[in-house]
What does this fold into?
Amino acid sequence: MRRPFALLAGALLVGALAAPVASAAPSSDGDAGFTIKDPRITESSGLAASHRHKGVYWTHNDSDDGPYLYAVDSATGRTLARITLSGIGTPRDVEAISIGPDDQIYVGDIGDNLGGSWPYVWIYKLPEPKKLVDQTVRATQYVVKYSDGARDAESMVVDPKSGRVYIVDKNEDGGHLYEGPERLSTSGSNVFKPVATVDLWATDAALSPDGEQLAVRGYFGGVLYDWEGGGRIKRAGRLNVPLQGQGESVTYSADGTKLMYGSEGKDSPVKAEDAPGQGSSSSSSGSSGGGSGKASGDDDGPVSGGNLKVGAGAVLVLAAGFLGLRRLRRRR
It folds into this structure.
């Protein structure tokens, strides 16, 4: 999705000047992060840990690609299979991916560059392949509408207990969690209704495998919520989201011990942080205490910068990169 790169770069610079430099502790177990090396994947916008294949993550481009999903090996960063979706129309702006308790992959074609130009968007559902080889898989297409009008969204989760689908819209001043019907239907439209506020300009979200926590990320930070079921959430704190060139995605590792943060761009890095509540200090700071694994201290305002810890020099380089990318995209 196209974004205001100059604005992002400026916000990053302000955050950097206000935050101390810190280095991330290396991961000692579980997923340690990886780099997506497939040259076909230049706008990785969603991420989901496989249920069937250990150490594999599913991703996709957000636009200008096609009906494709990629299975990436986290040990090497290489693509093991490209899945072509059949039985659907031409994707417009695929922004999210999640796997339900039925081992079905849900793909959210829910982006809207103009923030409300599409009267409806789509969700695709397909079974997660048992074998990781290039293949075509037939998907089911669902029409999605919002009860309060069209909007842009990049975040979609599937409740690991109920199988119900939720969407978080993307709004710079904070958005809402939208709840879908109990079961998606191919007959008519599936109306999603707002059930809770989300204090973030959200670019992706993920539910923990045990269905107890909701992690929502933005470009510069993240918020952790206690998931109480039925769309009820309670803010639990802030997430330590790593600084990335264009932070687009987040997912829990299959065992729930890590939060994996992805970014767009060629050779896209996926960085691992210990998930809150897993007894490690890398995802805690400030009032959370050493080694508690809790989210960091909270306040009442929406998150725009999060808990960034990066030097100003590094951010100046990123700012230059943002502006350079903007110029390149203008030439397309």
